[in-house]
Amino acid sequence: MPGQQYKYFTPAQGAQLRRLEITVRGVVEGVFAGLHKSPHKGFSIEFAEHREYVPGDEIKHLDWTVLAKTDRYYIKQYEQETNLRATICLDASNSMRYGTASLNGPGGKTIEQVTKFEYAATLAASLAFMLSNQQALVGLMAFDSAIKLEIPQGNGPSHLHQMFISLEKLSPGRTTDISGVLHLLANKIPRRGLVFVISDFFDDADKLITALQHLRHARHQLVLIQVLDRAETDLAYNRPITF
Hints:
Elements: H1 11-17, E1 27-28, E2 31-32, E3 37-42, E4 46-52, H2 64-70, E5 74-81, E6 85-91, E7 101-104, E8 110-114, H3 116-133, E9 137-143, E10 147-154, H4 157-169, H5 178-188, E11 194-199, H6 205-217, E12 221-226, H7 230-233
Parallel strand pairs: 6-9, 6-11, 11-12
Antiparallel strand pairs: 1-2, 3-5, 4-5, 7-8, 9-10
């Protein structure tokens, strides 16, 4: 995969993104303040605290220095290092076909128009690369009125290759049902973690809020990224408009 060119990810992107890092606020399973350490205590990696020995504890974890000083038995506890778990959810509904934005080439020449979906897919690929580069387990889901692509969480070059190729094969489809799909995702994503939702969020606001609350209730940490075309935010009044 190194140096390979994809539709939504290039070696130039990789060189730039390699210097960046995604950090997370708060504690979710597999994430502690942006570091890949579990909030659960175990017996590996980094010292956390002492606790008194109880029958059944492994002798190898006794702190002999403390025993010599206090004549009491204490066990060393450590933080378990875990992988951050993340799922990228990409809107591939019909409304994402729209796009009037242009990419500029050398000399400021317009080389192509970009749809909301193409922009969102590029963003999804970039996020997947950055998270994978931080040793995160990354999954990808795409949806319109239903889930149309589902790649389980994983890591490594072959996993990224699978995601990038799958993005190339995607195209915007039917009308959207973001709120309904988000309810499904709240039940499908296997473990608590970081959930990115990339969409124009063209849905009933109340239904959407309820669906997002469902994901929050499942203790996922949400990052919502709204992708809109400039023509959708800056309405031109210099010509007749039909609504």
